[in-house]
Structures are given as C-alpha cells and as structure tokens.
Records
---
Amino acid sequence: MLKIKEVANLVGISVRTLHHYDEIGLLCPDEVTDSGYRLYSERNLDDLQQILFYRELDVPLKKIKEIMSRPSFDQVEALQSHRSLLSEKRKQLDQMIRTIDKTLRFKKGEIQMSNQEKFAGFDFSGWNKHEQEARDRWGDEVVDKAAANVAGNEKEMGEEMNQIYRHLASIRHLDPSSKEAQEAIGTWFTFLNKIGTYSLDAFAGLGEMYVADDRFTENIDQFGEGLAAFMRDAMKEYASQNK
C-alpha cells in the first residue's frame, strides 16, 4: 500500500489531482487510516494507469468514470484499445513532425514544397479520432456494423457525407425547425443509419456532441461557421418531431 504522496511521486502527477479523482469517485483508495491517510493498493495503481491512458486520448473524466464503472469493463481489452489508438496518434504526430521539418527547409529555400505537402499529417476526417468515443457511447456492435458497411465504400460514403454537410451549410441561416431544414437533417439521419443503427435519441445526443466537443465543432464548421450548432438544433427538433 502506498500513501498519496508516494503515488504522486511514482506517477508524476500532483497530490491535488489524486484528491480530485477521489472526490469525484473516479479513483478512491482501497484504504483510509484512522488518521485520514489515503492508502493505494496495486489495484488502485492499475486503475490509475487506465485513467491516465484515457486522459492521453483526451477522454473527459466523467466519461472515464462511466466506462470504468461498467460491469463489462475489461482492463486487458482496454489496454489493447489504448495501444491501437496511441499507435495511430504516434503515426500522425510523426507525419506532422516531418511536415514541420520539410516546411523549415522550404522556408530556407532548400527545397520546393507543394501546397498539399504543407498539410500532410493533419486529419479532419473525424472517424478514427472519435471511434473510441462512439464505441463507449453506443457500443461495439453499432460501431463494428458501421465499419463493415463503410469498408470498401469509403470514397463514396465520404463524398455523400460532404455533399450533405455542404447542403446543410448552405441553409444554416434558416430556422432549424423549418421544413427545409428538417428535410435536410432527415437526409443526415438516413445517411447515418446506412453506416450504423441510430435511434432518434442517439441522433439528438450526437447533435449535442457536435457542440459540446470542440473537435467535432472544428471539423463540422469547416463547411461553414455555425454549422455544428445549426445541426445540433435541427437534430434535436427532428428527434422530437418524429418520436
């Protein structure tokens, strides 16, 4: 058993952070002495490792608590998922470092660089970036079915998705409850159900995520500023009208 300061020194995080994790019920020490000292077991350290892996992948603390408190949570499966996602993240970071090095040489006049090469490594597709969050929110079965439907058809799916985004962006000045807006967002609902199974409640919840998560907002608003908020409102209205 380790005292809280020993855990903090071992891991490299602050005592205050560990206190916060305890207060929100994310990581509660297995033992507290009569004097009030928190004592952390080996199991606590394993849980802390999981928490820090999730944090490295930008998963919010509230979501981590929800994931790890599920009866079906399996540490080995979670570690395998962490490894896969971090490997993808490393590949992207390595590419971005190469882009920086190449850009520096270009600025010095040592090489030529195309506009396309200047953006190598940036990924705004959103699929890989949010796949784990989708699994956590709707389960592996829905995501695996979506992936199977998209496999071998990624180009066509991508083009169709972008067309829907562009159309929605062109009408984002309208009232989200208007007939035209509702017809357009209905197309988005239909598209999503080609690659998965989304209930009306899940559809409305996804719309909330478009605004609550800055990464979603940034990706969607590439098609037009304010599009994410417009889609959220339209999706919420669509779910309400069609229940």
---
Amino acid sequence: MERKKVILIEDEVKLARFVELELRYEGYDVTVCHDGREGLQMVTDGNYDMILLDLMLPGLTGIEICRRVRKFSNVPIIMLTAKDETMDKVAGLDSGADDYLTKPFAIEELLARMRVAFKHAHAGGTKKVILEVQGLEIDTDKRMVTVNGTVVDLTKKEYELLLYLVQNKNIVLSREQILNEVWGYSYIGETNVVDVYIRYLRSKIDEAFGIKYIHTIRGVGYYVKDE
C-alpha cells in the first residue's frame, strides 16, 4: 500500500519533531514546515493526503491557511492548537478544518482522528445521491444544497451536519450522536459546538427561507422533519 503523505505545519520545533517521528513509525510519509506562508506554498505546490495545521503560526495563521486551501482542495485538515475555547474550535472548523485537537495531546488520539478523517474523505467519493426534504435538496456528488432551486452557501461542517440530519430525517439525534458522526468522536462536556452549528444552519436555511426544517426536542436532540 502506498504511504500516505502528510504535511505538518507547526512552529513548535520539539513538538513537530516528536509528531514527525511517531507518524513515520506508523508508516506515514511526513513533511514538516514551521512557517505559515511557507507551509501554504508547499501545500499549493505539493500533493498531500492530509494537513496537520497549528492555529498560531508565524507568517500566516492556521485559520487563514485553511480558508485558502479550501478554495482549491478538500484534503483532510486537522487543527493542532493550544486554544481550548469553543469559539476557537468553531472558528477552526468553520474555516474548513475537518477536526480540532487541543495541545497537549496523546499521539494515539491524533492517530485515531487521522484515521477518521481519512475514512470520511474516502466516503466522500461515493456515487451521486440527491436527498430531498420539502424543497430542500442535497446533491452529494457536487456537495451542493438548494432550497426551492436557490443555492445555499454552507461551510464544510455545516454541510456535513445538514447531510447527517437529512439522511436521518424524522429521527431525533442526540448531540453525542451528531458529534460522533459529523466530527468523528465525542467532545466530552463540549457538546455546545453542535448548538452553535444548528444556529448557523437555521439562520441560513430555516430563517432565510421561512421554512422550519430543523426541530428541537428539548433535553434530547435535533431532527429534520419531513411531512
């Protein structure tokens, strides 16, 4: 099997070296960069299977790198950062990151999240399916959402959350279920990130089009209703 190519953009030299050695031991082909602008250029010029990206970098922040990469690539991105506030996590995910890991972390957890991200990326290559609920359509091939023919601009995580809700329409999904499926693991004690993204979706879809798609069962979870 061909070795997966991973680029690690991290300015903490000792941490970068530790992660590099562990990933090489696990069979990954690893490239390391300590500067944001240089890292973005390497991603632009290279062909990587995954990006491990620090949030705070010299030259260019991880958030900005993520935004720019998402303009031309859907390569899996995992943010590595010392920040642990919910809104910082939301900012990273909203810029297009697939996952978010707070320092310090165990290498086993990083490896597990990498496996999940690769699995989700591979699943994204399945055949075209169009899902429909009351005028809302999701084209899984184009990753495009429309409501009564009008295209809705969603971030990567907003799209994945809406897709999961629609795939399980009329089924109440708990925050833990949503986190496990959309984020790939459980944010223990941090399930409010789901509430934040539900608000984003409601603003862009329910409120924008005057149609109530996403319903709440207080104390239980959320669901999309198909009448």
---
Amino acid sequence: MNRSRWYAIRTAPGYQRMAAADERLPESRRMESIIERNCRKDGFDIFMPSFYTELRHHRTKKIIRRRYPFLVGYAFVNLPKLNFEELRRVDGVVCFLRGANYGPLEFQDGIIEALYFAEHERRQAFLYEQHCRNENERHEQIQHLRGQLRKILPKGRKARASMVEQAERAIDSLSPQIRERVQQILSELNSLMGDAEVANVKQAV
C-alpha cells in the first residue's frame, strides 16, 4: 500500500468557492469547492481545511450555509505516486508550494491530521450552534402559533385544558373561514413538534 504524501497546491482565484449543487453526489460532497470537485473528478485525494458559517439573505431573510477555507489560496493533495504533472493539468491548480530545495514541499501526516482535527472541532461547534438556533426558532414559532389560537378561540377555557385541546373542542362551532385557519395552525404546530411533544402538548400552555 502506498503511504500518504501530502503537498500544498496554490489554487487559482475563485476556485475555493463552493461548486454548483449536484444532487447526484453523496452528502459528504454537497458543499465541496470547485477545486475539490475538479481534483476528485480526476482521481486526486484533496483536503481543503475549512470552516462553516450561516448568513441571513438580506432580501429573503433565509438562512444560507457557507463554507470557507482556513488557508485562502491553498489546499493539500495526497500524491503517493508523485504524479505532479498530472495534478498540474487539473483546472484550478496553479502550482505547488516549494521548499528550500526548490522542489514541492511535502507535509508530514501529523500536520495534516492536526488540520483535520481542528476542522472537525470547528464543524462540531458549528453544528451545535446551528442546532441551538433551530431549536430556539422552533420554540418561538410554536409560541407564536399558540398565541394566534388564543386570539381566535373563545375565552374562558378550563384551567387544565391546553390551547390545542380547546381548539379541537371548539373547531366545529367556528365559522368555515376561522375553522380553516385554526386547522392550519394545528397542522403547523404538529409539524414543528416531534412525536413526544405532540403527546405532551395536552399540558397547559
């Protein structure tokens, strides 16, 4: 088995941007960069240390996930066969980072592993922050929908009856237009809550 031999390449401007989405690719490659896609297409093992962030679109307000390189302009390629000329022909590869002997500079496995670990830690922190944000937004949306039910439904529900229970009991007595809105709110609430939460929603709001 050939041992790993990692070299740094200089990438052309713009080639570290995220490549166009391709649903045929596995999940692990959905956010790859242009240089990564080009190298992998030609059979090269590439590693571009990266971090993830989320941005809110200024017009649509939707959350957009983006991936950026730790080392702007550089990536690492594993060349156990030392096929440098083949890699130079890959679109987006400018040159190799050279060492003191003017040849391509080889990086020890320990350095690459440390970069892998740093990237993994940063990604886990990002995923945790994303999960917390999603949970907060979900909870706020649930509270907003319950507040809408309070405004629509008759006053004076029993102390032990939840807002959802009251809506289910009163829905047949509502006008068709209001009934449709209440059903829509209940549907949205159910979609926002897991099975366990749907069971617990009978508790008082």
